[in-house]
Specification:
The chain is of the alpha/beta class. It contains twelve helices and 14 strands. Strands 1, 2, 3, 4, 5, 6, 7, 8, 9, 10, 11, 12, 13 and 14 form a 14-stranded parallel beta sheet that branches. β10 (227-233), α9 and β11 form a beta-alpha-beta unit.
């Protein structure tokens, strides 16, 4: 078989398999060590005994992208962070489950990264012992801002993230995508760094439970923002999000996760002609009638958003409750809508949004016994 044909065939092998075929003969060894096969390394299901040796191998093979998610064991050891300096040419890194301290240590050592993702953060200690780690992760942003060329930063923790020195994020002038889901804020002053991120195109942030008016006003400075994802806000009062969304003229995609869409916000959304994609993933409400009323309110808003090209909506209902009662008729829409099933809801919306791709997901949940 020709060299190039073997090289193409080897590109379908996993990394453990590549290491095995090296032992067949000298030719196969040369092909299996070709740098093109090692530039992107995804270690799902792999176990690394010696990170220092592994990184020396990656350096020789010019590895640029390293994905450690779902590797074995699940948690990332300190040995990796200590050896991270051996990969100065690495450009993209996705971390598996690890402590906040390890993530910060890695970030401070790999200053050449363009893409950094750590979305499985836990507090320090035995990170697999969830009983002892139901606490927030504290991150000093000074460690992440050493990556001057960073374009994508994604940070998430199971029980929330608290940022130290968030103003340091102003140094990430090249950042285009920022995800800080689970972020715990106390005031809008902590979002002041957003005023300096002029190249930001994608922002995902939450939870918004304690956001004040100043927080929402900070978002209006992101004039080039195209995608916005906000999470976790139960209050119906709109503290300025609606007005902010109208100012973001380049915004095309909006995701509201466990976010209550109140009357004021609905009125602003109905005239957001620049919006093309909307996703609403509702919070669980155990009160069936209240849940149905909320769903009907959302439906009445969506009916007026004929400019949408895509709409994604998740509806929740108690597992023991037949979901024909997902929509309430008590908010000004036709009484015939009461008792609509999934297909009927979708058909109804298509009458108002015939050119929109509509996806509706029904999510049952168990009601806790009091």
């Amino acid at each position: 078989m020709a060299y190039n044909s073997l090289l193409k065939t080897f590109s379908y092998l996993s990394f453990p398999e590549l290491l095995k075929v090296r032992e067949v003969c000298r030719t196969w060894n040369d092909i299996a060590c070709h740098s093109s096969l090692w530039r992107v390394m995804r270690l799902k299901g792999c176990f690394v005994k010696n990170w220092e040796m592994a990184m020396k191998w990656m350096k020789l093979r010019d590895t640029l992208i390293l994905d450690l998610r779902q590797m074995m064991p699940a948690e990332l050891s300190k040995e990796f962070s200590d050896a991270a300096a051996n990969l100065p040419e690495l450009r993209c890194l996705e971390l598996p489950l690890c402590s906040g301290a390890i993530a910060q240590s890695i970030a401070s050592r790999l200053e050449g990264l363009v893409y950094f993702s750590a979305e499985y953060l836990c507090s320090d200690g035995n990170i697999l012992n969830t009983k002892n780690n139901q606490s927030r992760v504290f991150l000093d942003m000074g460690n992440f801002c050493k990556m001057k060329n960073l374009e994508v930063l994604r940070l998430r923790a199971f029980y929330g993230v608290i940022l130290h020195n968030p103003c340091q994020l102003t140094h990430l002038t090249n950042i285009k995508a920022l995800s800080l889901t689970g972020l715990k804020l106390t005031s809008g002053k902590e979002l002041i760094f957003l005023t300096s991120l002029h190249n930001l195109r994608i922002l995902a942030v939450g939870d918004c439970y304690k956001w004040d008016k100043e927080c929402f006003e900070r978002l209006s400075n992101l004039s080039h923002l195209k995608t916005l994802r906000l999470e976790c806000r139960e209050e119906e009062q709109d503290l300025g999000l609606g007005e902010t969304l109208l100012k973001l003229k380049e915004l095309h995609s909006l995701e509201l996760i466990k976010y209550t869409v109140g009357k004021e916000l609905s009125q602003h959304m109905e005239i957001m002609l620049h919006l093309t994609s909307l996703s609403i993933y509702s919070e669980i409400i155990e009160d069936v009638l209240k849940s149905a009323h909320r769903n009907a309110s959302i439906m009445s808003t969506i009916e007026k958003m004929h400019f949408l090209k895509e709409f994604n909506w998740s509806l929740t209902f108690p597992a023991h409750f037949h979901h024909d009662g997902l929509i309430s008729s008590n908010v000004g829409i036709d009484s015939e809508l009461f008792g609509m099933n999934l297909n009927e809801i979708q058909s109804h919306l298509l009458q108002f949004l015939p050119k929109t791709v509509i996806r509706i997901l029904i999510i049952p949940f168990l009601v806790k016994n009091s």
